[in-house]
Amino acid sequence: MRFDSNISIKINKSYLKDYDILTGKFEMKKNKMNCPFTMGKDVFMASAALGYLKNSSEKVKNPHELCKTTTFSIEDCAILKALFLKNNDMNFDKNYTDDNILKQAMGWAESGFKDLKIMTIGERSLTNLECIV
């Protein structure tokens, strides 16, 4: 059920600082509780979900490794595989590979992160509760 552990999840290098802000990477421990995400993988998953919901995917520009697929829980893997299948009319064909699933997820995340950034740290930022909802 898990992905091949040799695959890296890549995001746009220009998003690294924003990922750090959203996870509170540089915050003191008590202030970290105010951050909407606990780790970069969670920001990636939310971004991929937003990209999927918008039906929007973009090639990752200036790719930089965020994490290895070993960071994903079984639930994370199941979600990404289910979204890929739904997007491909539930076809378990030759395209249903870890590489293709993760490439699609990275494309959704590339597109979805722009909205996530606006909602969380942009001009129209929402409260933490609104972000979670």
Strand content: 5-15%
Widest β-sheet, arrangement of strands: 1-2
- What quaternary form is this? single chain
| Low-pLDDT runs | none
Description:
The protein is mainly α and 133 residues long. The protein is built from 6 helices and 2 strands; from the N terminus they run βαααβααα. Helix 3 (40-53) packs across helix 5. It is globular, with a radius of gyration of 15 Å. The mean pLDDT is 87.
Task: Summarize it.
By secondary structure, the protein is mainly α.
Keywords:
single chain; 133 residues; mainly alpha; two-stranded antiparallel sheet; 2 strands
Summarize the topology.
Layout: E1 8-12, H1 16-23, H2 29-32, H3 40-53, E2 63-68, H4 74-87, H5 98-120, H6 128-132
Antiparallel strand pairs: 1-2
Helix pairs in contact: 3-4, 3-5
